[in-house]
Design goal:
six-stranded antiparallel beta barrel; 17 helices; alpha/beta; 527 residues; elongated
Length: 527
């Protein structure tokens, strides 16, 4: 019976019967149920029933109705109409299929590919394009709509490299030769389905992509030229991606592939004593950093149950601060003031004072000159402080996306040490430039500007960052992250947008007043 319903629906579609005629016929059966009963009644002469069909129903469906009437199947009309709608919708949607190859496939291979597409997507209405692509090395890549199936030599090589990298970052204690051997033994070649999208515009470190309907916020996508980006904006029919590399080679029509992996940074003890960028790559010329762990740059802050009371002091080495308003391990203390009032000096003195006190330090430079960062690193080396310090730098020359992710990446590194039961001091220098970088990204992504042209979620930008600083309970190791965010004010105006935001987020503030600083270098506490 089901086969007959499908056959009649296919016949209606091949006869090009308009959908409006199908709908009208269904309405007649609904409005005139006595007509349906009369047509299905075998005691009524067939000639009379056929005459009723000719007098009431649309011309295009009369032949099918007469056949159903003769075969006693007129009661199946509603099922046939539903099947017709399904077939019509399926066939009217033309599926775009693109086949990239090194050696042109034979007709028999193309037939099998079409069968594969039909079995996966249940339509024969496909538009297939064949393209030669010598860069694949061998095999072919099949792209169906926004999905990609990779049977190429290039894809196999990338699968193997991903397998090796996952073992290296997965905490394997094997050396690289053993990892390679086990990866070869365990390698299972799969033509996994990957979701792809196509670039519609690119510029200023922002790429707008059509497709990637299932991409997640914060997910990494990879472009044709190997450059990676992070999903930052999700709209109904497109997504906005911030680039972690150069735009060169990314043009309109370039492909982007989902990785199903959140943006993150490698973490480990090897980062101590090193200077790295926001992606964890060393920039100090001292060789590769070998790590086995990986943490997403965006992590939820520990809950109340996971925290412990802040009752252990962290000395800055500055008598005025330590004696009058001490900072606790796990606290968030804001250093705020105009430029050239000693904000970075307080942070540096605090880092230098942690020597021999079982506290690791991370200094995050956001939007600063490379020469300034180099001088700071030399000062740390001079006082033998780099052994327990990592410097993460996103310089003024780096694009806005890199400056935006820098403090989150540094906090992920700090969390690695915290969950190892260690105390960590992290300095964000400074969050004013971080907010400016985020404002640039948001405006380029087309988000509505608000006060001082900042987007509406700029408070959440810093609250979700600083909330990750805390002291963990003994059950989780008792580690802590103490945050010293720095904010630069204009002419002492602490009532501006970003300063008031961060003041309300932090537990206390150290306010450096310009006139007092220039007269006698005093440090005052703002309540």
């Amino acid at each position: 019976m089901l086969q007959k319903v499908s056959d009649y629906a296919q016949q209606l579609y091949k006869m090009h019967v308009p959908n409006s005629e199908i709908e009208e016929t269904s309405r007649i059966f609904e409005v005139l149920p006595e007509t349906a009963s009369q047509l299905s009644d075998p005691t009524v002469p067939l000639e009379n029933r056929l005459a009723i069909i000719d007098s009431i129903f649309p011309t295009e469906v009369r032949d099918i109705l007469k056949v159903l009437c003769q075969n006693g199947l007129l009661s199946s009309w509603m099922d046939i109409a539903d099947e017709y709608r399904r077939v019509s919708e399926e066939e009217s949607t033309k599926l775009s299929v693109r086949l990239r190859y090194v050696t042109k496939p034979e007709e028999e291979q193309l037939k099998r590919i079409r069968t594969f597409v039909y079995n996966k997507y249940h339509t024969r209405n496909i538009e297939m394009r064949l393209e030669e692509d010598a860069s694949l090395g061998g095999g072919f890549i099949l792209e169906v709509g926004n999905d990609q199936y990779d049977w190429s030599t290039k894809g196999r090589r990338q699968q193997f490299l991903d397998e090796v990298m996952s073992k290296r970052l997965g905490g394997s204690s094997q050396d690289i030769v053993s990892i390679l051997q086990s990866s070869v033994d365990d390698f299972d070649l799969k033509a996994e389905k990957k979701e792809i999208g196509f670039v519609s515009s690119v510029g200023d470190g922002i790429v707008v992509i059509n497709g990637l309907d299932h991409a997640m916020y914060g997910e990494v996508v990879v472009f044709d030229n190997g450059v990676r980006g992070m999903v930052q904006n999700i709209e109904r029919n497109r997504i906005g991606v911030i680039l972690f590399g150069e735009e060169e080679g990314i043009v309109e029509g370039s492909r982007a592939v989902r990785t199903n992996k959140m943006a993150g940074i490698p973490v480990g003890d090897a980062f101590l004593g090193r200077v790295v960028d926001a992606l964890g790559n060393p920039i100090d010329g001292e060789g590769e950093i070998v790590t086995r762990d990986y943490r997403p740059i965006e992590q939820p802050a520990p809950g109340i149950i996971d925290r412990k009371t802040v009752n252990v002091p962290l000395q800055t080495g500055i008598l005025a601060i330590d004696s009058m308003f001490p900072i606790g391990r796990g606290q968030r203390e804001l250093i705020i003031g105009d430029r050239q009032t000693g904000k970075t000096s307080i942070a540096m003195d605090t880092i230098l004072n942690q020597k021999g006190k079982n506290c690791l330090c991370i200094y995050v430079a956001i939007g600063q000159k490379e020469s300034t960062i180099a001088a700071l690193v030399e000062n740390l080396k001079k006082h033998d402080a780099m052994s327990y310090t990592c410097v993460l730098a996103a310089t003024a020359a780096d694009p806005a996306p890199i400056q935006y992710i820098a403090p989150y990446a540094a906090t992920s590194l700090a969390e690695y040490f915290m969950y190892e039961g260690k105390d960590v001091l992290i300095v964000y220098d400074d969050l004013s430039k971080h907010a400016v970088a985020y404002r640039a990204l948001s405006l380029l992504l087309g988000r509505a500007p608000g006060r001082e042209a900042y987007p509406g979620d700029v408070f959440y930008l810093h609250s979700r960052l600083l909330e990750r600083s805390c002291r963990l309970s003994d059950e989780l190791g008792g580690g802590s992250i103490t945050a010293l965010p720095i904010i630069e004010t204009q002419d002492g105006d602490v009532s501006a947008y970003i300063p008031t935001n961060v003041i309300s987020i932090t537990d206390g503030q150290i306010f450096l007043e310009s006139n007092l600083f220039f007269s006698r270098g005093s440090v005052l506490r703002s309540m």
